[in-house]
Amino acid sequence: MPASLTTTLTHRILRRAAASLIVLALAGCSTTKDRMTTGSVPKLTKPVEEMDATELRSATDRLGQAYEKNPRDPVTGVNYANLLRMNGRDAQALAVMQQVAISNPADRNVLAAYGKAQAAAGQFQQALDTIGRAQTPDRPDWKLISAEGAILDQMGRASDARQRYRDALDIQPNEPSILSNLGMSYVLTGDLRTAETYLRSAASQPTADSRVRQNLALVVGLQGRFPEAEQIARRELSPQQADANVAYLRGMLSQQNSWQKLAAKDKTPGAADASNTN
């Protein structure tokens, strides 16, 4: 295959993989407890990250019923929209958050969730504007700063994105979700070695969750070390979840033996810069 076509394939795979996972990091930049506040909202039987597809659909249905009863409630609306996004229903999540934001225009948490929904739906500039309104200069929220970085990465503004991640790390040092986003930023520009360094640092933190390790598994696999990637992907997950994650990795990395080409290209001087070209 000509070098220019290999570079294009590499860039497309990197962007598709990292874009989807950065959105996940954006959606999950707060803790499970933060996302799923209890009270009038139906309680969950386990953390969202540990749910399989059937459990996620069931939880979404229950939250949907609570939302229909009280669509103005900010906690219910935010939690319902988060679950919709986790089910891939980004347009519906955005519609929910639009209504919740109209009813709660000054609620910082609502604005943050609305911005995340906009980003997941591809409305990146609107998302930046909304999250900016949620931020308070005297008490900056590192989660919002990291979210801004993830949106900037989606807009192709890698340098600006990485500065926002570092700003967030100044407030919350060694936070795994920020380090993971920073690592995935380097995936987007093809610098897999730097990406792995940040993702290994993220995965080593005591509070790192499975999403961080799945990002690490992807980057290791992109460098051609699939047995190691599979081992990382299977940690701490149920067999069903692990099989699903490994199947995703295999599907992502098997396109025209893309991971082998990426591994060879990453060993070539200047490969990281080349993968930036379209």
Question: What's the structural blueprint in terms of helices and strands?
Answer:
Elements lengths: L2 H25 L4 H4 L17 H17 L4 H13 L3 H14 L4 H13 L3 H11 L7 H13 L3 H14 L4 H13 L3 H12 L6 H13 L3 H8 L5 H15 L4 H9 L4 H4 L4
Helix pairs in contact: 1-8, 1-10, 1-12, 3-4, 4-5, 4-6, 5-6, 6-7, 7-8, 8-9, 8-10, 9-10, 10-11, 10-12, 11-12, 12-13
Can you characterise this structure?
- By secondary structure, this protein is mainly α.
- It has 16 helices and no strands.
- The longest helix has 25 residues, at 3-27.
- The two termini are 16 Å apart.
Characteristics:
mainly alpha; globular; disordered N terminus; 278 residues
What percentage of amino acids are in beta strands?
under 5%
Strand tally is: 0
**Amino-to-carboxy terminus distance:** 16 Å
Estimate the mean pLDDT confidence: 78
Run of helices and strands: HHHHHHHHHHHHHHHH
Q: Compute the CA-based radius of gyration.
A: 19 Å
Structural class based on helices, strands and sheet pairing? mainly alpha
Number of helices: 16
* Shape summary: globular
Low-confidence stretches: 1-10, 23-41, 265-278
Largest sheet: none
Helix content: over 70%
What's the short story on this structure?
The chain is an all-alpha fold and 278 residues long. It has helices at 3-27, 32-35, 53-69, 74-86, 90-103, 108-120, 124-134, 142-154, 158-171, 176-188, 192-203, 210-222, 226-233, 239-253, 258-266, 271-274.
